[in-house]
Design a protein that fits this description.
alpha/beta; TIM Barrel; Elongation Factor Tu (Ef-tu), domain 3; 3 domains; eight-stranded mixed beta sheet; six-stranded antiparallel beta sheet; globular
Length: 368
């Protein structure tokens, strides 16, 4: 919705946060005017930059003077491609299939050859550091289009690769026994244990894949990578610290982790299940029905799973985002209780403002 662009950009600006609009879709002629309307609305709203792969989008961004970043779907893998897109973009998202040595060579060449973007500054390199990986080269997949007529290159991937598959001999009909039926579903990228090497390679913008992810996923991943950056900058980054952060990342949605192509290892890290491999999961408790700001007390009607003193909780909402804590004390009719069940109206303290209709969950270890 175009109206959302202004709301989101304003919210980001008020909180001193940059905003980026992804338009890395294939554009057809009959969509040209609509795309221009979206881009103009983004400029008017004060969006920091667009991320695009279609040259019609990139060119129009340059015409009206809004920053544009070259999407990973352009598969930029060498310095000549960087030179070309430097005529349009100050930031280039490199292909996810490169290894760190190749990234370092591109970064060094930008400095040596003084390759500058439209701003007059040296082109900056961006890399994916965390999140889902496509089985195809930089997302250039046609499986969903072929099977279901929904194009991954137009934001409509049905993720046929994430399903189980059988392997059969067409001549005999014999099904081959394979170790893993998820033969086209890669594990998720996670670089938290070698983030220092990515920075040393000259990457200055880190990208976390998060389309359609939950508020707690956004919270945990951004917190973890920000903490890793702080540890690197302070000289306190270590295998122990990075492993601790990796364990934290495992608590939210993931398909299992691997290093991607960055360390030069062969592809072969496939997920072994449908959906998430997160070590923790959330169970719905109820909605916030009132909040007392003077006492920082939330009131909730328990609608589903019961809740106990000491439980880890998560509260999510449109304005609240994702708030996590431990519930130290539960009250029913102002009396302390150890446990509340479905139908109870409970009150408990929070450290931040929450809002009516926010959802309360308890966080538990996932069963495997």
């Amino acid at each position: 919705n175009i109206d959302d662009i202004q709301k989101i950009a304003s919210l980001c600006s008020e909180n001193n946060v940059k905003s980026y609009l992804t338009l890395n879709t294939v554009v057809y002629d009959d969509e040209s005017e609509k795309i221009k309307e979206i881009i103009y609305s983004a400029k008017k709203a004060g969006v920091t930059a667009l991320i695009a792969s279609d040259m019609s989008v990139i060119n129009y961004c340059r015409e009206i003077g809004i920053q544009v970043h070259a999407s990973t779907q352009l598969n930029v893998s060498n310095i000549d491609a960087v030179k070309f897109f430097a005529g349009f973009c100050d930031v280039i998202v490199l292909a996810r299939e490169l290894n760190i040595n190749q990234v370092k060579k591109i970064s060094d060449s930008i400095i040596e050859q003084n390759i500058k973007g439209p701003s007059g500054n040296l082109v900056r390199l961006e890399m994916f550091v965390h999140g889902a990986l496509c089985m195809s080269i930089s997302g250039k997949c046609y499986l969903s289009l072929h099977e279901h007529n929904y194009s991954a290159n137009r934001g409509a991937c049905l993720q046929a690769c994430r399903r189980k598959y059988e392997v059969r001999d067409k001549e005999t009909g014999i099904e081959l026994e394979i170790d893993n039926e998820y033969i086209m579903s890669p594990k998720d990228l996670c670089t938290i244990t070698f983030l220092d090497k990515i920075l040393e390679a000259g990457v200055t913008v880190l990208k976390i894949e998060g389309r359609g992810r939950s508020p707690e996923y956004v919270k945990v991943t951004t917190e973890s990578y920000n903490e890793a950056l702080e540890l690197i900058c302070s000289g306190n980054y270590s295998p122990e610290e990075s492993t601790r952060l990796e364990e934290k990342l495992k608590t939210v949605y993931n398909r299992g982790f691997w290093d991607g192509y960055y360390l030069g290892r062969r592809l072969g890290e496939w997920t072994d299940r449908h959906g998430s491999s997160a070590t923790k999961t959330k169970e719905y408790v109820g909605k916030i029905i009132h909040f007392y700001p003077n006492n920082m007390v939330a009131v909730t009607l328990v609608e589903s799973s019961g809740i106990r003193q000491g439980d880890e909780i998560l509260i999510t909402g449109t304005s609240t985002g994702a708030y996590t804590s431990q519930i130290d004390e539960i009250r029913i009719a102002d009396k302390k209780v150890d446990y509340a069940q479905k139908g109870d109206i409970i009150s408990f303290k929070t450290e931040t403002k929450v809002r009516p209709n926010d959802k309360l969950y308890k966080v538990v270890f996932a069963e495997r």
